[in-house]
């Protein structure tokens, strides 16, 4: 079971995630998000966390200039593309930056899962999230779940993480219903929007590992 804690922006949250054994920590490089960090802030956070989880940089339809600024400031392990990036754009980013690409896709129907095939050769893993609710200011991190049974019994073309509305209280049920080999959370481990709670992070990872 792979576990990603997303939207970390303070040392206490990162330390809690690392201590509890998170596989990935997500740093958001999308300025409208309350979870956004600058490249300099991310570099300082990363430097204070030797070893441990893989660093995932989260981008929304970013241009190469932003990707260069961030990858020049700190060593990322994975690029998460959470906008409307096409398969060709994902492949170009992977080639140019030489890093694994995690493509986030919004899921609401079985047809949305069929669309993964077009990305299979262009990305290394998927993050399956709910579609942003109407009027939501962000394309992700909205505490919105999708129907977990949609993925049950489906063979998907790449490893994947389940995301959207997960919490310490529902992650075990979500894993059982979806068959997910990994999970991702942001809102469900926050005490206020954009403010991570170390105890919730530890509880989430523990619940996911026990599932
Ligand atoms: O979290 C954000 O602020 C964010 C902003 C823009 C695009 C994506 C964003 N988050 C993506 C994530 O990876 C979240 O962890 C995922 O959507 C699940 O979020 P939540 O439902 O809040 O657990």
Automatic annotation (TrEMBL):
Protein name from the UniProt record: N-(5'-phosphoribosyl)anthranilate isomerase
UniProt KW keywords: Amino-acid biosynthesis, Aromatic amino acid biosynthesis, Isomerase, Tryptophan biosynthesis
Keyword Isomerase: yes
Similarity comment: Belongs to the TrpF family.
MF annotations from Gene Ontology: phosphoribosylanthranilate isomerase activity
The keyword Cytoplasm is annotated on this UniProt entry: no
InterPro entries hit by this protein: Aldolase_TIM (IPR013785), PRAI_dom (IPR001240), RibuloseP-bd_barrel (IPR011060), TrpF_fam (IPR044643)
Domain of life assignment: Bacteria
Alphabetical list of HAMAP family matching this protein: PRAI
Class of the enzyme per the UniProt entry, highest EC level: isomerase
Transmembrane regions: none
The reaction(s) this protein catalyses: N-(5-phospho-beta-D-ribosyl)anthranilate = 1-(2-carboxyphenylamino)-1-deoxy-D-ribulose 5-phosphate
Domain N-(5'phosphoribosyl) anthranilate isomerase (PRAI): 3-206
Pathway(s) annotated for this protein in UniProt: Amino-acid biosynthesis; L-tryptophan biosynthesis; L-tryptophan from chorismate: step 3/5
EC number annotated for this UniProt entry: 5.3.1.24
Alphabetical list of SUPFAM superfamilies matching this protein: Ribulose-phoshate binding barrel
